[in-house]
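Structure first, sequence second, as always.
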C-alpha cells in the first residue's frame, strides 16, 4: 500500500497484534480499512488485481460502479495475494460506525501507527466490529488487547457497546 494516496489501515486481528507489538495468534487473511469515498482510488492503485464485492453474503464481480451501503466488503486478488477491503463511513471529519450511526469518532482517533510506521485501525474500533457474531478468536483478541487499551479507550468501547449491543459479554470485562 506504499504510495496509496488516501488513508488506509490494517484491520481485524492484525490490527490488534500491531497494537500489542507481537503476533498473538495465526491469521488467515489480511484486512485493510479505507474510507468509502476512496474505493475507486484504491481500485486504480491496485490495477491488474481482480475485484469482487460481497452482496448479501455472495461474491460478485466489481466493475467500476461506486459501491454504496449496504455493500461494505471487497476482495482483491492478484496471483496468490488476497486482500479483504472494508469500506468505512465518514461524514464531516468523523468516522461513523456503519452498523449504528450514533457511534462515531473524530477521524484522527480511529487509527494509529505501529513502531514500524504501519497504519492500523485502533483496537477499540476493531473490537466494535467483532461484537456481531463474536467467535472464539474474537474473544481471544479482546482478552489479549484489553491490557493494552488506555482507560479512555476502554471507556469509549464500553459506552459504544452499551449503545449498540447492551447485553454483550464484554461489558462485564470492561468493569475491571
Amino acid at each position: 500500500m506504499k504510495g496509496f494516496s488516501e488513508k488506509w489501515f490494517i484491520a481485524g486481528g492484525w490490527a490488534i497484534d500491531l497494537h500489542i507489538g507481537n503476533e498473538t495468534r495465526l491469521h488467515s487473511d489480511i484486512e485493510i480499512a479505507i474510507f468509502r469515498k476512496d474505493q475507486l482510488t484504491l481500485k486504480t492503485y491496485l490495477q491488474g488485481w481482480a475485484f469482487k464485492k460481497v452482496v448479501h453474503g455472495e461474491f460478485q464481480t466489481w466493475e467500476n460502479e461506486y459501491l454504496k451501503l449496504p455493500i461494505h466488503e471487497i476482495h482483491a486478488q492478484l496471483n496468490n495475494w488476497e486482500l479483504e477491503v472494508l469500506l468505512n463511513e465518514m461524514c464531516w471529519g468523523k468516522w461513523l460506525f456503519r452498523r449504528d450511526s450514533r457511534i462515531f469518532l473524530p477521524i484522527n482517533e480511529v487509527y494509529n501507527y505501529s513502531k514500524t510506521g504501519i497504519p492500523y485501525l485502533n483496537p477499540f474500533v476493531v473490537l466494535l466490529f467483532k461484537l456481531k457474531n463474536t467467535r472464539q478468536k474474537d474473544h481471544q483478541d479482546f482478552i489479549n488487547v484489553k491490557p493494552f487499551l488506555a482507560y479512555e479507550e476502554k471507556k469509549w468501547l464500553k459506552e459504544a457497546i452499551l449503545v449498540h449491543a447492551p447485553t454483550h459479554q464484554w461489558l462485564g470485562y470492561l468493569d475491571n
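Margin note: The radius of gyration is 16 Å.
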